[in-house]
Amino acid sequence: MTSDKQQKKIAVINDLSGYGRCSLTVVIPILSALKIQCCPVPTSILSNHTGFPTYFFDDYTGKMPDYIEHWKKLNLTFDGIYSGFLGSEAQIQIVIDMIQDFSASGTKVIIDPIMGDHGKAYQTYTETMCSRMKDLVCLGDIVTPNLTEACILTGCEYKKDGWKRAELREMALEIQKLGPEAVVITGINEGRYLTNAVLEVDGTTHFLRSFRVGSERPGTGDVFSSIIAAQAVRGIPLKQSVKKAAGFVKQCILKSDELNIPKENGVCFEELLSLLIRHRE
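Below the sequence we write its predicted structure tokens.
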């Protein structure tokens, strides 16, 4: 386990949505609570996430190279590079270049290949972008696809439930063959349970499940992957990190339902950040 005496920093490539609790407005406070400096690289600026009926959107693709160039002039390196939502094929290449330019010895690369959900790719993701995502995934130390994204990466036919553990392990192995060291397939339906399939570097597979609670909400994947990223740069074992992340997301969902937070407003993780601050391991 790494020492907390030297503060870690993670470059986070994601969009900034002003309202709705997702992407950078989730990542920054979660990493901060876990004593990690978050260094954002915005991919786009939105007034609120796209789950609302109207929103302002400003694509940042054209500005990203100049933004990053100044980091290069400062000779920056990072303990972690964490990639989230990307809005264009060009951004995928920008992230690939960032990993090559800003990685140092021991830099952990966490890829959340956000491409779709509920069996379908998002409208912004073309077949070419989905294919190019494999080029980014191959550079990851840890990748955290949901079940839909795992199917896109492997070409498997999506099904909502009824997955056999052997099928899930085989799909995780197929993703690992692309290049990443470890794979976490999230949000697998198993009756009353939600399961995360964890494939370790050495090929060990864990199926970590918890009782399903509350309602589906945007931003929970950002909470989950942010905890995984923070724990990774601090040297916490992956299985332990996934348990922590899943447990915290579950508590956030319960609290949000208790406070009658509208679903489109995500999870009120702010109410529970003290839990992360007190129990960082």
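The chain has a mean pLDDT of 94.
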